[in-house]
Design a protein that fits this description.
By secondary structure, the chain is of the alpha+beta class. Among the domains are: 64 residues, MutS, DNA mismatch repair protein, domain I; 53 residues, DNA polymerase, domain 1 (Orthogonal Bundle), CATH 1.10.150.20; 138 residues, Dna Ligase, domain 1. The chain contains 14 helices and twelve strands. Helix 4 runs antiparallel to helix 5, helix 10 crosses helix 11 and helix 12 crosses helix 13. The C terminus is likely disordered. The protein binds magnesium ion (MG).
Length: 390
């Protein structure tokens, strides 16, 4: 149900799986990505290799001793970054509330999808399915009421699985785990806890606060006790992508009909303009994103010769992009973004006849329905002059 809206999505043996996409001969074999020299270190190991005790951060020489058949592949870093970006694109198609932890791991708060899926577990399955079908990569997902339980749940789900921890069973799940599994417990803290006789998270939860605070100090002591008791109020904090600014909305009821979508785009253009203005930026590229009820997603972009940041420019560009999309199904999500960002207020080309253009722009905004046949303005030709509203 929806008492557990936090997903922790973590790809399995990400670098190895990325190499397997390039070389299917590596599938099903003990493979590690890492340094191949004498002093090399393992960065990622397949589950077949892990069965022999191969681990990341292990010297390659040790790994080869543990697993004689181990195939060690040197890392192809550029490719992992590219794949990672595509993985995060999939995440953001589900929710804008994505907090990345590393190249292949993120928290997603999916509470906004409750009208579109019957449970958060269904969202988890859809995310896994999209990553598998579009990128060919396995991912494990933990589903829980809080970030740290979701993270422990995805660990328990590995490899290539999912684990939902219902809120009323989370203490049972949590307390059986080793205290080492708690987020933020490093070797020094672990030694301190072991001196107190703590082995499992359940042991820690039962200690009196004074004992824990006396050993760990008040800040860390109380924090760990809270976690051990299943208390974690930390919200998913979406990443700020400085390379683009966008406005996105998933609608409670799908948008049907072109006019409804255009009206929604008008609101988006205004909000995007506000956000650009607050950041002091203008965009060279504008991207429209539509997701339909069946979760297929379409994006269209245009890059103009000049930067844009006013609501009217953004709206007309968005309408131009919308015309390139076949909108034959109800729309669930609508997004409008600006990238290729530059500081606003840079000197801009002042075209001849700009005033005439602006009159047409005003008209378009005033009457959404009037656009048919009336405005053949090409997005790339929209050259902004000094606008009274920005
Ligand atoms: Mg991973």
């Amino acid at each position: 149900m929806w008492a557990e809206p936090i997903l922790h999505v973590d790809l399995d043996a990400f670098f190895v799986e990325a190499e397997r996409l390039q070389d299917p001969g590596l599938v099903g074999k003990p493979v590690a990505v890492g340094g191949t020299s004498n002093r090399g270190v393992i960065a990622s190991a397949s589950y077949e290799a892990r069965a022999h005790g191969v681990r990341s951060a292990q010297p390659t020489a040790t790994a080869l001793r543990l697993c004689r058949d181990l195939i060690v592949v040197p890392p192809s870093h550029g490719r992992y970054g590219e794949l990672s970006a595509r993985v995060f694109e999939v995440f953001r198609e589900f929710t804008p509330s994505v907090e990345g932890l590393s190249v292949d791991e993120a928290f997603l708060d999916v509470s906004g999808l409750r009208r579109h899926f019957s449970t958060s577990t269904e969202v988890a399955l859809a995310v896994r399915g999209q990553i598998r079908s579009r990128l060919g990569l396995p991912a494990s997902v933990g589903i829980a009421s809080s970030k740290f339980i979701a993270k422990l749940a995805s660990e328990a789900a590995k490899p290539d699985g999912y684990r939902h921890i219902p809120k009323d069973t989370e203490l049972e799940f949590l307390h059986a785990l080793s205290v080492e599994a708690l987020w933020g417990v490093g070797p020094a803290t672990l030694a301190g806890l072991q001196r107190l006789g703590v082995e499992t998270i359940g042991d820690l939860a039962e200690l009196p606060e004074a004992a824990v605070v006396g050993s760990m100090g008040p800040t860390q002591g109380r924090h760990l006790l809270d976690l051990a008791r299943g208390i974690d109020h930390r919200a998913v904090t979406p990443d700020i992508d400085a390379k683009s600014i966008s406005v996105e909305e998933t609608y409670d009821s799908d948008l049907e009909g072109i006019e409804v979508i255009e009206t929604a785009l008008l609101a988006h253009a205004q909000r995007l303009a506000d956000r650009l203005h607050r950041s002091g930026l203008a965009a060279r590229t504008v991207t429209l994103k539509l997701r339909f009820g069946d979760f297929t997603t379409v994006t269209r972009s245009v890059t103009s010769g000049t930067v844009v940041d006013g609501p009217r420019d953004l709206y007309l560009i968005a309408i131009g992009l919308l015309e390139q999309v076949e909108v034959d199904r109800p729309v669930r999500l609508l997004g409008l973004g600006g990238s290729g960002l530059e500081p606003a207020g840079e000197p801009r080309q002042m075209p001849i006849g700009a005033e005439g253009n602006w009159a047409r722009v005003d008209e378009a905004v005033a009457g959404v329905r009037d656009r048919f046949g009336e405005h053949s303005v090409e997005p790339a030709r929209l050259i902004r002059g000094p606008a009274p509203d920005d």
